[in-house]
Amino acid sequence: MKTTIPVSTATKVLLALLSIGAGAASGQQVYDSFEGEGVVCYAKTKTAKIDTLADNPQSDGVNGSSKCAKFVRSRQRYDYIKIFPQGKLGDVSTYASYDPNAPKLKLKVYTTAPVGTLVEIQLGKKSGIAYPEGTHSQYQARTTTTNAWEVLEFNYAVSPRGSKTSADEVDVATLLFNPNTSTSDTYYFDDLEGPAIEQVQQKSVKLWRKNK
Q: Which pTM does this prediction carry?
């Protein structure tokens, strides 16, 4: 008879940290598992709502975590979430390539939005004008399901004309769900993965809960 051994919260956190460490060693890193530990913090527009301690709406084989982030998009055309790592991202030049073998940014997403909804990640720097000067590169993916978890892999789209940010200056990621629309869908996301963070401090970032 098969025996199921319960996994404690502490064990899940430890496994998440081991995953983060393994990713960093291979050049990729998961920035936040939303299980109590992370190496990033967040900011958003005034009109949007984000909860970084939200319950997973549907635990499944794609995402079995108990917690994730919940983002309720406002009708602002370019609603966004800013993600600030504890250091600069490693050289992102290999990501900014149309080569099919280029490494990919990845994100687990669960949403009420229609199939084909655009999700974009912009990599840039905190200082100065955010766009286009402060944006190094833009990456895009489209959803393929509704009300179910999936792993999106982001393809390089463009480096904006007028960018003044080099590949080794990136210290912020901007996450946009369905940009340039007036929709107000709900998005759950988890396990954003990308270039390893350089000189990560050996401490956790306290997650905040706001506008649930």
A: 0.82
